[in-house]
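Database export, one record per block. Field names are fixed; values are copied verbatim from the stored entry.
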Amino acid sequence: MKGAIVINGYLDGKKFREPAEMLTEAGERHGVPMKTFLNSNLSVPIGDSDAFAERLGDIDFIIFWDKDVKLARNLEVCGYPVINCSEAIRICDDKALTHLTLAEYGIPSIKTVASPMSFGYPYQDILPDIVDQIGFPMVVKDCFGSFGQQVHMVRTMEELHEHAEGTVPKIFQEYIECDGRDIRVEVVGEKVVAAVMRTAAYGDFRSNATIGGIMEKYEPSEEEAQLAIEAASAVQADFAGVDIIHSADGPVVCEVNSNAHIKNLFDATGINAADCIIEYIIELIQ
């Protein structure tokens, strides 16, 4: 058995390379050779399986550690098993689609309003209506974004106009007070393999490690673990990092990440999710 890993060719930096390196090393430990490819080197005609074969060689599966959903779908069209699948990537990459999917499956999440499709026109005219529904404070997020970037706490109409300026698709969410903490649960093959408690840096409400959040090993409750498994299943993810916060009504899903960073998870827990992913794929493919 041989596998490939696809990463983005335009995002340079250690944090973008580490997951592929960890998966390659895990493959070696399990006797599964892995080779990494950049998405920028896999632009071939749609549906041309021969063109992919020339570039990828003899492989049995692809771990897709990127958000290039069109490439992932083209690989599927050409017969390659892609993990995570293109639909999981599409849903997780768009925060509005994530919450729509969670709602469809009855999975508790945060009260969310999605910005309208405006065809490139500003949509600030709807902001008073959003305030009526969500209230202040609220959290404003770009639909497409990672590592806690483009996430803002908004307390006034002036701040709302500032962070909803332009035409970028956004979601507007009820702010749930959680002392700057959330739980990241790593799910692989409908099993919880690791979890951490993340605490925001002083003065921030975002708990992402990339912007200063602290991660500590955490043992999720049965309810939290089941919620994470159901969320990953709903978005069709074989593996995912599910972010959970506690509301007055219990745990709710904040986000589902189709390629959550596994290096800081390893640093905090000592658990290498790359091994779990490779072991799952071996069982799945064989």
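Remark 1: The chain has a mean pLDDT of 94.
Remark 2: The domain at 3-84 is CATH 3.40.50.1980 (Rossmann fold).
End of record.
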